[in-house]
Amino acid sequence: MIKLMRAQSTGLRGTMTVPGDKSISHRALMFGAIAQGVTEIENFLVSDDVLHTMAVFRELGVTIDQHGKHVRVIGRGSEHFTQPQKALDMGNSGTSTRLLMGLLSRQPFNIHIVGDESLSRRPMKRVLTPLALMGADIRLSENDTLPGVIYANSQVTGITYEMPVASAQVKSAILLAGIQAEGVTTIIEKIPSRDHTERMLRQFGGTITVKDGRVSVTKHQHLTGQHVIVPSDISSAAFFIVAGLITPNSKLTIKKVGINKTRDGVLQLLKRMGANIVMSNINVNGEPFADITIEAQQLKGIDITEKDIPSSVDELPIIALAATQAQGDTTITGAGELRVKETDRIATVISELTKLGANIEALEDGMIIHGGTPLHVTNESALLTSHGDHRIGMMNAIAALITTGGDVVLTGEDAISVSYPGFLENLSRVMI
Ligand SMILES: O=C(O)C1=C[C@@H](OP(=O)(O)O)[C@@H](O)[C@H](O)C1
Ligand SMILES: C=C(OP(=O)(O)O)C(=O)O
To answer: Which residues form the active site (predicted)?
Structure first.
C-alpha cells in the first residue's frame, strides 16, 4: 500500500496514548504460560510480533483468551506443554525467537522454529552458544540463522556467562533456561540491558539476585499467575516525542508511558540535546510509568556512545531524525547492533533520510549526523520505503511531517503493525 503524507504539518497538538509495551507483552505471555494458575494481562499490545508469541503458546497447548487489550492465560507450568503439530512461526520477531529458545530448551520433544525472511537473516548464535553450554541441543541453519530445531532434552545446567554483546534478548533466553537448570545461572553484563524479565520473574513470585552487573537465578521457582498491567511502549511514544519536538507549533502529552531506567535512553539523550521533557503523574505498577509532555523547540547535537546504546537501541532511528534538525553534529558510535535488527538500521536510516536532503555519514558502528539540514523534496515527490522495518516506516512518516516542497510518498508502511498497529491513524489525529 502507498500512502501520501501531508508534508509541512502545521503542528501536532493534543493528549494521546500509544499501545502497550512490546517487550513486556511478550514476557507477560511467557511468564503466564509457565506459571501455575491464571494470569490476567491489561493493556496488552495487540501487534504482529506479540501475536506470534501468543500463537506459539497456543500451539504448545496453553489456553489463552484474548479480548482486545485484555488477555487471560491459563498457566500449568512448562512441564505441561504439548508437542506442536507444526513448526513454531516467529514471524518477524527477534524477541520471540531468542527468548523462546531459552524457555523451550528443556522439552521432551523436538521443536522446529521458523521466521520470515528478515528474521531468517538475523544472528541466533549469540543465544545458541550460551544455551549449548547449558546443555541445550539446538541446531540452526547455515550462518547460524533460522530455521532451527530445539531437540528433545531432559536436562540443562547453570552456567556463569559474561555477555559478549549487550542484549536483553540473550540475557532473557539464558534466564528462562536458568530457571529450569540444575545449579546456579549467572549472567555478567558490562552495560545493563532492559530488565523486564528480571522484574517479571519477581512479580510472578520467583527469586532472582541482581548485584554489581551480575544477575543470578536457580531452579525450583514457584511461579503463580499474576495480574500484569502493561505500560504504554516508550519505543512507540518516542516517535511522537521526537515529532512534537521537531515539528513547529507542537505540544503533545503522551499518557502512561513506561519509564523504566533501562529503557528510557531516548528521554536522556533528548534531554542532553536540550529538550525540555516534562513528566507528570509518575507511578509504578510493576513497571514505572508517567505522562510525558513536550513542545517544539530547537535541539543541539551530542555524542552518543556505547554506554548509551542498550537503553535506547530501538529509538536510534528516530533520534537520528531529531539530530538532522539539531544545531551541530550528532555522533553515534558503539551501535553496531543496529546492523542486525529487522534491517541494517544504519543503512536504512541513511538511505531514507538522505532522500529528503539529510546529511548523514555511515560508520561501521553508528553514524555522524550533520544537523541543521531542513528536509526538502525538490522534485514533485520523494518515495520513501520502510524496507519492511516497522521503526523505519514510522521514522519516515515523522520525517514527512517536517519536509517542505514536493510530496512524500510512503511505501511498505504495513510493516508498522509489527509493533504499532494504528500508528498512522494516531498521527493524523494529533496533526492540526
Ligand atoms: O528484550 C527485548 O524485548 C528486546 C531487546 C532488544 O534487542 P537486543 O536484546 O537484541 O538488543 C530490542 O532491540 C528489541 O526490540 C526488544
Ligand atoms: C528489534 C526489534 O524487535 P525484535 O528484535 O523483537 O524483532 C524492534 O522492535 O525494533
So the answer is: 314 (proton acceptor)
